[in-house]
Amino acid sequence: MVERIYVVRHGFRMNWQGNETFPITGRPRDPVLTAHGLDQARCLAQYFLSLPEAEQPQLVISSRYYRCMQTAFPTAKALGLQLLPEPGLSEWFPPAWPPDSGKHPFPPSVEDLEEQFPPNAISRTWRPLLYASPQGETAEQLHKRTKRFLSLLEARCEQIGVKRVLLCSHAATIIALGRSILAESAGTDGRGYPIGAGTASLSLYVRGEQGGDAGRWTQLLNGSADHLPEGVEREWNFDHVPSNVTEPGMGADWVDSAQPLLEDKADTVWMEDEQDPYREDAGPTFEGAKL
């Protein structure tokens, strides 16, 4: 049973806008960390290395977007662990609009990421738990995604005997994750229980072991920046976006080279209008994918 979940937002990144394609991975909407962000990542590694061994993460799981992988890598290296690239922790893209604007990009493939990191730094055996829909998500759907992700993560950790994990993701996603862990509800517009989400900030959730708290999660750190010399920076919350926010896709003719293939079919319809891919009985549509 998972007993301790650390949740980190990626470090200070380069600015990005619209469909711009960035160097390094050559993927759209995938900016790199600034030099300051790399320093923040090193501070995170020092923090985790300073913890007693019994409190250190046993798995370091990161969104596949490069800024998150860059943030998590120093910690994984310091702890002697491989990075586990997980698309279920991906960035939140609001619903693609107008309808003819195409889809949002998937995060980089494992093969693309391996070119940017030392040999064997990234696990090839980690099977993705979940994929976000390329059609985008409402704030409510994002919270359903994180709830589903946590359910799958707990089952995976139970299977392999892991009790402590570190998750590295993006501002909106870590806010939704925190609420999902604490079973705190959020409105359809994403407003709700406040989770800190500054760059390279750290939240810690611990599961109770005794008495009335047995099985219940407590938040011991909420967007803490005590490990960072400059403190909290680039704090974000759902008040920063309109309640009905949308975002253009990559264009109707854009072909995504990083779109994964499912085991049961090559041409995937990821979301149909009449389906909710995040419902509890969604089945294997977003699970068991392989690159």
From TrEMBL:
SUPFAM superfamilies: Phosphoglycerate mutase-like (SSF53254)
Protein's recorded name: Phosphoglycerate mutase-like protein
Gene3D superfamilies named among the record's database cross-references: Phosphoglycerate mutase-like (3.40.50.1240)
Pfam family, one: His_Phos_1
